[in-house]
Amino acid sequence: MTAIEATGLRYAYPDGTLAVDGVDVTVEAGERVALLGPNGAGKSTLLQLLGGLVDPDAGTVRYFGETTDADAVRDRLSVLTQNPADYLFNPTVREDLAYGPSQQDLSAVEVDRRVERVADQLDLGDLLSKPPFRLSGGEQRRAALASALTVEPAVLLLDEPVSNVDAANRAEILSLLSALSADGVTLVTSTPDTELVPHVADRVVLLDAAGEVAATGPTREILTDTDLLTDCDLRPPQVVRLFDGREDVPLTVAEARARLGD
Q: What fold, for 2-74+154-163+180-261?
């Protein structure tokens, strides 16, 4: 089943600058897709267009083969922007996590179950009674992600989910995203970080600096095409650069270690 089908998306900022121009994106249910591009390529805008947070100037986005109305499928579609404050606006973290499912006509018992389950997954149990502004930056990122997950979405769109977080929070978030994917959740991640992509995506939509799709393909195919990445003002992953020119180039440090150990 196709989870998201976007056709001919075009969007310009109020000053007339084109952010996205003629973009087609299709995401199948259960896929892990990265929107990869340099800063200023329109990745965040494209993610918001796909998530129905902003309306395109031209083009359409269809969800689950059913509708172009994102609000009609909010119980199956969550978007996590870069700003945790967009999701943390209640007096306590617990209330923020409960906000989404409480809008879904669920019982209080079910809402509490979801809050406790997601809090446990992201190690937020000791923070539930705290006001969000008392959390560290990494804790706020995890709490914002938790608030997006308590609606139990079928599709989760994430805008640079591990930027500006420490190693421990990064590992925790990536571990949860891997578990969500294993459970069949569709993941779309926007990032300029080629090092992150192998951990969050099996397929890449590569954007150039003009906000146009330069290439689409399997993660390995895109990340090992160093000339293509350079043309799009992106730095290939360090491991790819170290092994460039060899057969079956590793994408991550873990893959490289395994290769050298063989």
A: Rossmann fold (3.40.50)
